């Protein structure tokens, strides 16, 4: 039934497009000879659009564009038409999957990275211009440039791995922007058209999450682009409305190149489909010092962006009413201990297992990484801090990487995350469960003391200074 409704909506949307683009007729099915442009085109971007659409094709023509985009991203990959097709469904009345449309917070499906192994995903939300943007002084340049054919954008994006961002921190996927048609239809069937039948609204994991976690979403890709809030404090809050050509990078295929930014953090190249219309840049227009973001980037550069027709807001995945996301940045992230501590029995079987996980086999050097990660991860993400701050991206992620390296292999990590969800707090399971500090090794205590000192040195208040926990010892 869900799939039938999707098909009906697609037919209706195509009728709308036939009215919006009357010059694209049945006699010209691919639009190859059409030289006009959509009615919302601004005169200022005519040159860029002429270059991108030199042969008169439009990304809005779903099936035509999906076939060509698929042909490009599968170049060099064994033909997989029987198991993979770019999603040509009109996922909303406002555009196809590559328009990256979101209508409400529930559209963002919460995905938990796999545990027990390394895993990576890309973040392209801040890509576009040749020069760095944002408020962190060490943000790298993340350009998005049209390919020679103009049929997609090659975007430089962050590579986030579970050895630097622990799998306790979720990532998010817009249900309307899933580029694999089969996985999109399966996800709609399981989660509903708006995503409200899956996490975070319920405990059901969306099919798209398992497809991404097993790297089966896009054939030939090393990883795919999703949304993560972990970089939000490095950019100015808010959004900037625009109307032009943009890259819709959600679930686009990405490839490792070995490139790193000036801080030694990995970057990847993503092949993003493009769309023309209204969109929002995921950061405020005012960049400080009199600098303003520009909708038109000039040359072949385009923004990686998304669009919310209802409110023109930046991407804001929302937890269910009255809930929060553990181990996520402020606004939607759960607070630090002791929030909701009475909701979990510290003497119960769950907490006994949690404490065993924390005190279990230490990582290399005799450090119990569950404790060290909790001592620095959430404060480095901004929880419990006086914001805005001047802490740089390199400082935050450097501390997180030291504190949490190896936590993805910690037995019991999933149960630790569940306790945090029940208690509604972040980096707090050992405190909630009353895990005895006598079980913390001397090496772990020394490392916590060092991490706390390093946090203070760059302007981060550690949990020890906020709630008197995870202070370390001799």
UniProtKB/TrEMBL annotation:
Name of the featured protein: Conjugal transfer protein TraN
Protein species of origin: Microbulbifer taiwanensis
Lineage of the species this protein comes from: Bacteria, Pseudomonadati, Pseudomonadota, Gammaproteobacteria, Cellvibrionales
Keywords attached to this entry: Signal
Annotated signal peptide: 1-25
Organism domain of life: Bacteria
């Amino acid at each position: 039934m869900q799939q039938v409704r999707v098909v009906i909506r697609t037919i209706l949307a195509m009728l709308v497009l036939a009215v919006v683009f009357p010059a694209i007729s049945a006699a010209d099915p691919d639009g190859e000879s059409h030289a006009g442009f959509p009615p919302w085109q601004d005169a200022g971007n005519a040159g860029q659009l002429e270059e991108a659409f030199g042969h008169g094709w439009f990304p809005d023509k779903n099936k035509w564009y999906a076939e060509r985009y698929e042909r490009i991203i599968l170049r060099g990959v064994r033909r997989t038409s029987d198991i993979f097709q770019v999603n040509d469904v009109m996922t909303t009345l406002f555009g196809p999957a590559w328009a990256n449309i979101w209508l409400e917070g529930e559209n963002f499906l919460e995905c938990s990275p796999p545990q027990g192994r390394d895993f990576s995903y890309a973040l392209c939300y801040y890509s576009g211009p040749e020069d760095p943007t944002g408020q962190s002084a060490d943000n790298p340049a993340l350009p998005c440039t049209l390919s020679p054919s103009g049929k997609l954008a090659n975007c430089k994006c962050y590579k986030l791995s579970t050895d630097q961002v622990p799998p306790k921190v979720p990532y998010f996927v817009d249900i309307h922007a899933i580029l694999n048609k089969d996985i999109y239809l399966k996800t709609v069937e399981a989660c509903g058209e708006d995503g409200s039948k899956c996490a975070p609204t319920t405990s059901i994991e969306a099919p798209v999450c398992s497809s991404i976690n097993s790297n089966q979403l896009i054939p030939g890709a090393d990883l795919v682009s999703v949304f993560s809030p972990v970089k939000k404090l490095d950019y100015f809050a808010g959004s900037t409305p625009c109307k032009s050509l943009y890259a819709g990078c959600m679930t686009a295929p990405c490839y490792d190149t070995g490139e790193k930014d000036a801080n030694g953090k990995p970057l990847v190249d993503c092949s993003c489909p493009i769309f023309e219309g209204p969109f929002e840049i995921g950061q405020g227009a005012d960049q400080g010092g009199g600098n303003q973001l520009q909708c038109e980037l000039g040359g072949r550069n385009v923004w990686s962006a998304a669009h919310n027709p209802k409110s023109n807001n930046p991407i804001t995945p929302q937890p269910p009413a009255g809930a929060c996301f553990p181990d996520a940045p402020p606004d939607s992230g759960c607070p630090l201990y002791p929030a909701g501590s009475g909701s979990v029995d510290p003497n119960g079987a769950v907490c006994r297992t949690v404490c065993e996980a924390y005190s279990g086999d230490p990582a290399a050097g005799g450090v119990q990484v569950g404790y060290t990660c909790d001592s620095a991860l959430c404060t480095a993400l901004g929880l419990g801090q006086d914001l805005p701050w001047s802490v740089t991206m390199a400082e935050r992620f450097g501390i997180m990487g030291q504190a949490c390296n190896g936590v993805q292999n910690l037995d019991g990590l999933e149960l630790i995350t569940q306790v945090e969800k029940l208690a509604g707090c972040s980096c707090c399971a050992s405190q909630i469960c009353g895990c005895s500090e006598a079980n913390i090794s001397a090496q772990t205590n020394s490392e916590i003391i060092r991490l706390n000192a390093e946090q203070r040195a760059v302007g981060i208040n550690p949990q020890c200074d906020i709630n008197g926990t995870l202070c370390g010892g001799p």
